Amino acid sequence: MRQALGLGTIGYIAIAVLIAVMGGLIAELSPGTLVAFVVYAAFAAFVHELIVGISAMHAGWFPAFAVALITLIIGILLGFPPVALALLVGFSASTGPAFADMGYDLRAGYLLRGEGVNPAFELAGRKQQLYAAMLAFLIAIPTVYFAYPGYFSQDMVPPVDRVYVATIKAGATAGDPPRGIAFQGQGSNRFDGSLGGRLYRRRCAVRLLRLGYQDRAESKIGGVTCGSGFSAR
User: Fold this and answer.
1) Are 62 and 50 in contact (CB under 8 A)?
2) Which candidate, 70, 94, 187, 230, has a CA 20 to 30 Å from the CA of 128?
3) Domain count for the chain
């Protein structure tokens, strides 16, 4: 088990590096931020896989998209840019459901084989299930490659993807004062690059979203406050 977890960790780090290279993050991020992205992406995907897989095996359901949203929000608080956040949540969300499906299969096979009464038979059955799963992955890759343009051209994407996009957009624009918004007094120094400043910006953005404020709206909001020094004209 320990060896398998170690190999999995190395594999996720390698995939995170590949995502960073193919996604163009090397040119966009500083060296320190790039290393932080690789480490966090690998960690998030690995933890996401374990949480979702164990939930699927024991409870019969898996909070795949909720856990991915949590990893996305943490990535926003860490200050990753929008492109990095999109790659991060895609990487994280892709690991959980696959591992959950494998958890379902292994659990079903365990019950059908007599709940481990014959260890040799149980081990052989697990190996056959693993071979079948790997074959299914090989078939799924070209299937998705040829099928996705038809879905995307009709705007047929999972609703949760729109949640991720809205979250990324809100996080990316929370640090910029929208039109009609003024930062006054002692609260203005809270909008810096520190973690506290980012948290403060998120709180302000949530207040504006709750009030239905839109950056391109023609009407202005009056009397909106967000702690000390934040107001809307």
Assistant:
1) no
2) 94
3) 2
User: Do 86 and 199 belong to one domain?
Assistant: no
Cα separation, 46 vs 26, in Å, equals 22
Residue 168 falls inside a structural domain: no
Tokens read off for 222: 């009056």
Can you name the residues that pair with 231 across neighbouring β-strands?
A: 182, 225
Burial of 76 (0-12, 13-18, 19+ CB in 10 A): buried
Enter the DSSP assignment of 191: -
pTM: predicted TM-score of the whole model, two decimal places: 0.64
Query: pLDDT tens across 33-62, in order?
Result: 889 999 998 888 888 878 887 777 677 666
* Res. 188: pLDDT tops 70: no
The residue segments making up the domain with residue 93 are 2-159
Token pair 């709750």 is found at 210
